[in-house]
Amino acid sequence: MSRILRDETSGNCIFIGGKADAKSIQTIKENGITHILNVTPTKDSGLEGGLANFFERSSVVGNKLVYKRIPVMDIPGEDLKAHASAAVKFIKTGLFYGSVLVHCRKGQSRSCTCACFYLIKERGMTAEEALGVCREGRPGCNPIESFVRQLKEYQVDCGVKEGAGRDPPSTKS
After folding, report:
1. What is the pLDDT of residues 90-116, one digit of tens each?
2. Residue whose C-alpha is closest to residue 16's, from 144, 97, 137
3. Of 3.40.50.720, 3.40.50.850, 3.30.300.180, 3.90.190.10, which CATH number belongs to 2-157?
4. Could you tell me the residue ranges of all domains in the chain?
5. What does pTM read for this prediction?
6. What's the sign of the alpha-carbon dihedral 38, 39, 45, 47?
7. 27-49 burial string, b = 16+ CB within 10 Å, else e?
8. Catalytic residue positions?
9. Is 86 exposed, middle or buried (0-12, 13-18, 19+ CB in 10 A)?
10. In terms of DSSP bridges, do strands 66-69 and 99-103 run parallel, antiparallel, or are they unpaired?
11. What are the recorded GO MF terms, alphabetically (predicted)?
12. Has residue 48 got a pLDDT over 90?
C-alpha cells in the first residue's frame, strides 16, 4: 500500500493498494482507513478481476468500514470516466472522516486512475501532474492507455488548463 496524498488540513491520507492491502486488517487499522473504494467487478459476477469487500460486514476495526464499489474491468473498452464523479465524491467524503484506500487487484491501473480523478477535480492538477504524484508515491502506478486518455478528457471536462504554473501540493508531509 502506498500513500499518495496527505491532506494538509486533516492529516488524513489517500492510499493506493491492491488485493493484499484490502485484505489486511492490520494495514487498514494502522493507517486509519475508514473508507475503501474497490475498483473491481463484484466477486459473484464470475469475472476473474472481481474482489470482495473483505470487511464489509465486520466491525473488526471498531467502527464499520465504508465501502464503495466501481465495477470496472482493467480493459480498454471500459468507461472508468463515467464513474469519476462518484469516485471523487467518495474519496472527498472519506477524507473528512479518516484515510481512504483506493484499490483494485494490483493497485496499478484502475485504482491509480480513480486517485488521479480526485487530484484533477479537487486539487486542480493536470492529468500528467496527477499521474506524476501517483507514480511518486506508487512507482507501479501504470494505468492502461485508454484510462490515461480518459484522465486527459476528464481534465478538460474539469476546466484544468495545461501549464498553469502550479506547483503540485505536498503529498508526503
Report:
1. 999 999 999 999 999 999 999 999 999
2. 137
3. 3.90.190.10
4. 2-157
5. 0.89
6. negative
7. bbeebebbbbbbbbbeeeeeeeb
8. 104
9. middle
10. unpaired
11. protein tyrosine phosphatase activity
12. no
